[in-house]
Amino acid sequence: MTHKLCAVVWLLFVIPSVAYSQNFFQLNETDNEQLVFSYQWRDFDDRQQSFSFQVDKKEFLQPLKRYRGFNRERSQRELAHQLNRYIKQQQWQGIQARLTPRQQSVELVTANARTAQKQQQFNDYKRRLRDYYNERWHDYLDANFYRQLTLPPGEQGIIPDHPAIASEVTPTLRPLIQAIGEQLGTNTQRNYINYVASFIQQIPYNDLNSKLDSRGDGFVPPNQLLYYNQGDCDSKVTLMTSVIKQIIETPKMAIIYLPEHAVFGIAISRQPGDTAVKHQGSNYVLVDVTGPAAMPMGQVSEKTKFQVETQQYTVVPLN
Q1: Is residue 4 one of the residues assigned to a domain?
Q2: What's the CA gap between 56 and 235, in Å, rounded?
């Protein structure tokens, strides 16, 4: 699977009616190692918005500090090592796990079986090792914040586990969430969603060589996206997830994956013209936070709308 995730969507497929960027962004570090983030931008109604928040630098950057994009060769090397260690623990003779020549998978190699009984024993070893491999494979994905994704018509790949990452970094984003709450106060769910969407859209877009297949190099967790003030579509949708799940608790939410793209979805009342997808009885109104197009809740590009209408998407519920 070799699709790029949102790396060229805006350049090739969208001519935004409105493109906008930050009026002002500043990141200051104080003497006591506090980070102060300050923003100004214009929202969907062309009103100037602004807020600032402060965090402890070490605590803010610590979550997922060592996150790395998925690398198949690295994963298979680690799993081959675990298999051989398991073989040694079981004191099995005549079998070993080794990498295939291109290091894309692990193969099980046995010595020559001189008897049918020995061949049956080797077959039993292989069966048990395959089961062990599958268990360790899922453990490896979970431990490193990866997940498998299948897109219609059946293409599969490994991507960052955006829902798990969003939950992992949520505590570090509470000052940001509090700053947003202070600006909007008592307000409607749609106004909160549009406010956060406009804020994230105006953060500069950078695909960082992101791919939806075997690497995910372009993805950065939400805290790093804010620190570097740039990110791609799946980085931005993960930030949206982290923030909105803390502000709005009741409706069902999801990330909707399309070929080369990812958008946020929330099950609230639709308005005329809203683009939504239905999944397991819930209608998720789409929110595209990629930018640079200014797109309020329910508005998506023509390419995204076509993919939705032709059911080229996978829904991953968040709650």
Answers
A1: no
A2: 22
* Main-chain dihedrals φ then ψ at residue 198, nearest 5 degrees: -65, -35
Could you tell me if 204 and 271 lie in one domain? yes
- Shared domain for 180 and 283, answered yes or no, is yes
The answer to whether 196 and 122 are in contact (CB under 8 A) is no
108, 131 in Cβ contact below 8 A?
no
Distance CA 287, CA 276 (A): 9
For every residue of 122-168, DSSP letters joined together read: HHHHHHHHHHHHHHHHHHHHHHTTEEEEEETTTEEEEEE-HHHHHHH
Coil/strand/helix, residue 46: coil
Domain containing 84 equals 72-143
We report the CATH number of the domain holding residue 280 as 3.10.620
Name residue 298's amino acid.
Answer: G
DSSP 250: S
Question: Helices then strands (H, E): number in the chain?
Answer: 10, 12
Residues 81 and 108 in one domain: yes
Cα–Cα nearest to 149, from 88, 211, 224, 191: 211
- 3 domain-assigned: no
Q: How much is the pTM?
A: 0.88
How many domains does the chain divide into?
A: 2
List average pLDDT for each run of 10 residues in the chain, which is 319 residues long.
38 36 88 96 93 97 93 96 98 97 94 96 98 97 96 92 97 97 95 97 76 54 96 95 94 95 96 96 96 92 96 95
pLDDT at 212: 39
